Amino acid sequence: MAKLEAGIRHFGSLDDRVRRVEIESWDERKLPAYYVSSGRTDLRAPAVICISREDETGAMLLGRLLPLIASRGMTALVVAFDDVSTTRHGRSEDLSSLLDCLSARHEVDASRIGIYGEGLSAALATDFALADRRIAAAVCDGGLWNWARTQASISWMTGTSHLLDDPLTTAHRSRLARRLKCPILVVAGGRSIVSVRESIKLESDCTAARIDLKLLMPRFEPTPGTDFENFAACDEDIFAWLEQKLAHTSAL
Predict the structure, then answer these.
(1) Half-sphere exposure (Cβ direction) of 177: Cα atoms closer than 13 Å
(2) Domain-wise residue ranges, the chain
(3) pLDDT confidence of residue 249
(4) DSSP characters for 166-190?
(5) Cβ proximity of 37 and 67 under 8 Å
(6) Most buried of the four, 41, 76, 92, 181, by CB within 10 Å?
(7) What is the pLDDT of residue 17?
(8) Element housing 158 (H / E)
(9) By the 8 A CB rule, do 2 and 70 touch?
């Protein structure tokens, strides 16, 4: 954290735009977060709630995403997965507390708040976008994590290795995506919890149903002996999509 804060001070103009905050949750706990101001006082800006991977701290995620957020004039709240994944009931309430905090900020346009989660946080982002219709855009798993667990349970109980890809299977796979009322970006492959195979099928299902869902697969760069996931390029694509959707989309 000391290195991160020193890095923020090195940016100079960003020093007064980033600060650590504590947000009161539904059960009166204090949720630690990093607040990134848009730096604009003359207009209301879009905002994003960013949730780290299960193996990443909030400070690590902030260090990675700060240039992308700051360069787009966005406001953001960056939180750690461990702080908002305590209980099934509590996590939606905790995220609603973060959304309430952003909505109350004078510099934030409350109709243009998105959510971004990666790793298991992508599944949290889906659940929260379903629970709180104020979310205007979601980078999430589109319900595929729950689908994969259901598929595995049925395969185990029936002794089959896979489910037939019939209309009933298609309906189950896209069930949660159909309930989401905002644009969806699903990142598949690489470090994502979402399989490329199922995400391609989900995108096809949603295209047929006219659901605003886009699939993004990270780029891989060849290196000696292996391929390296270009997460920086993937992050750039994600925030370009958020910038586009939050420029035009309002929460219902």
Answers:
(1) 34
(2) 2-248
(3) 54
(4) SHHHHHHHTHHHHH--S-EEEE-ST
(5) no
(6) 76
(7) 83
(8) helix 144-158
(9) no
